[in-house]
Amino acid sequence: MIIKFLRQQFVLLLTGVFLVSVLFACQRVPIADSPTPTATPTATPATEATLANTLFPPVAYPDRELSASPAQLPKLPFAYDALEKAIDAETMKLHHDRHHATYVENLNEALQKHPELQNRSVEAMLRDLNSIPEDIRETVRNNGGGHLNHTIFWQIMSPNGGGEPTGEIAQQINQTFGSFDAFRKQFNEEGEDRFGSGWVWLVRNEQGQLQIATTPNQDSPIMDGLYPIMGNDVWEHAYYLRYQNRRAEYLNNWWNVVNWSEINRRLQAVSQQQG
Ligand code: MN
């Protein structure tokens, strides 16, 4: 009788321990939270979700501007041939490893003449070019702008990109331009009409409204108080190997690699900071 009672108690105890272990294990399952750009860098392979991590520290968000002490070339968050739906591998390699790298080198070289400027972000210098000593002002404008523009450019493209916009950016595009198709058409036209070298942008102005803008050379929209949400590079170096002089075809294909997740993150970041 006593042995049977003890055996029952033992079984109950084991069951209890088992249930508590299960509950404990469940609580320790990590919550599948979407990673934020502030997350600690990890060695995870570059996917859209970990993109911001792999680019850390050069991020170019409103609250995490680009360092100039010294400026650093960010790694491409994908392989050179990953954007073949729009851009060939050879172009990507030249564009990132040579063109962008040269902007970074030239900026750092110029700032060595005025080391006190290295305490300021690239964006802070571009917003207030008149405060930059005249002997390096144009160099900072062109190469600081080139560094900022390209850092954003690599982030807002993805091999998993393309398709219709999602989330908040989709709503705001519809409200502002009527539809995604209307927006894309206007963006392509303005990119095509940008004479010579430059960029076409979707920007957020100080009133919180979206608008399409273009800039010449490597000028950044932030020089005009406009925050770049997304932009396409219409310099010939961005497309000439595959498309030759057919900029319109490049502009059209580029939508196949547009990274709407990252664009939503940029919109959210600037909305939080500027209201
Ligand atoms: Mn470029």
Secondary-structure blueprint of this entry?
Elements lengths: L1 H26 L23 H5 L33 H23 L10 H6 L6 H22 L11 H11 L2 H14 L4 E7 L5 E7 L10 E7 L6 H4 L3 H8 L5 H15 L1
Antiparallel strand pairs: 1-2, 1-3
Helix pairs in contact: 3-5, 7-9
The site of manganese (II) ion (MN) has 7 residues, from helix 3.
Describe what is shown at a glance:
The protein is mainly alpha-helical and 275 residues long. It is 49% helix and 8% strand.
Describe it for me?
The chain is mainly alpha-helical and 275 residues long. The chain has a domain at 167-274: Iron/manganese superoxide dismutase, C-terminal domain (minor pseudopilin epsh fold, 3-Layer(bab) Sandwich), CATH 3.55.40. It is 49% helix and 8% strand. It has helices spanning 2-27, 51-55, 89-111, 122-127, 134-155, 167-177, 180-193, 240-243, 247-254, 260-274, and strands spanning 198-204, 210-216, 227-233. Strands 2-1-3 form a three-stranded antiparallel sheet, sandwiched between helices. The longest helix is centred in the first third of the chain and has 26 residues, at 2-27. Manganese (II) ion binds next to helix 3.
